[in-house]
Design a protein that fits this description.
With 259 residues, the protein is α+β, with helices and mostly antiparallel strands. It is built from 7 helices and 11 strands. The protein has an 11-stranded mixed sheet, sandwiched between helices. The mean pLDDT is 95.
């Protein structure tokens, strides 16, 4: 951000998003992160997902030199990774840097924000599904449910279910159950008075029954009670209608370069 510019809600939320990822990386056995002077970070979690490793800029206008410098970090060679920057209008130098590293697939993701109110702290009632926080001891169930929701092999989600993650003081994992059957997952990360919403996953047989909404609402409820007043997330195309209906609004779109 240029000197004298005032931070807006999107700036604050973007910085909190980066802090949440750094927290997640710190909980991984081989995770690391480093931030530069101009809003760019290099981060490795070790998870086999490009969106969780790479070079990230949370500046309003990404610094092309800093992005290029961090893209050469040796630690990225061992993982699948991405370049992520705020906004849709990305300079050619950043696109060229991504291409030089084989990241020639370009996509956008909505970055959504919601102001939390007392309504978000409302009781969830006793109807199905039952949503509860789960600790590391139930990591296998959480991982299997999350994998089913994302329709991927369970082993690639191990990074999300380590005790260091699920038992972290600022991270909360949630499992929704209907008639005793796991039907959805969600995850919250508290960063000051903000909460990031992650890992919303509903296995295909259980979709369109309100389970994803209930799992998301549990994150917002507990976060509000813990002092959070703003929620943020990156939404998939499938999730956008739900989040809009829950009061989230798209603050901006981010550009992602992957292989």
């Amino acid at each position: 951000m240029k000197k004298g510019e005032k931070r807006d809600r999107a700036d604050v939320a973007a910085e909190a998003w980066m802090a949440a990822l750094a927290m997640f990386a710190d909980a991984q056995p081989a995770g690391f992160h480093r931030m530069g002077a101009h809003g760019t970070s290099v981060l490795v979690t070790g998870a086999p997902m490009s969106l969780l490793n790479g070079v990230f800029s949370v500046a309003r206008e990404a610094d092309a030199d800093e992005v290029a410098c961090f893209a050469a970090a040796p630690g990225l060679a061992a993982v699948t990774w991405s370049v992520q920057v705020r906004g849709e209008h990305v300079g050619h130098r950043i696109a060229d840097t991504a291409a030089r590293h084989g990241l020639d697939r370009r996509m956008t993701l909505p970055f959504m924000i919601k102001k939390l109110t007392e309504e978000d702290a409302g009781a969830t009632g006793t109807s199905e599904p039952r949503v509860r926080r789960v600790a590391g001891a139930e990591g296998d169930t959480y991982r299997e449910t999350m994998a089913a929701g994302y329709e991927g092999p369970a082993e690639i989600f191990t990074a999300f279910t380590l005790p260091a993650v699920m038992d972290h003081v600022s991270m909360s994992a949630y499992l929704a159950e209907a008639a005793g059957v796991p039907v959805a997952t969600s995850f919250g990360v508290l960063v000051n008075d903000l909460v990031g919403v992650f890992n919303l996953a509903v296995p295909p047989p259980h979709r369109r029954r309100g389970y994803g909404r209930a799992a998301t609402a549990a994150v917002l409820r507990d976060a509000y009670e813990a002092g959070a007043r703003t929620a943020f997330l990156h939404a998939s195309p499938m999730g956008v209608p739900l989040y809009l209906d829950m009061g989230f609004r798209t603050a901006e779109n981010w550009t992602i370069f992957t292989s």
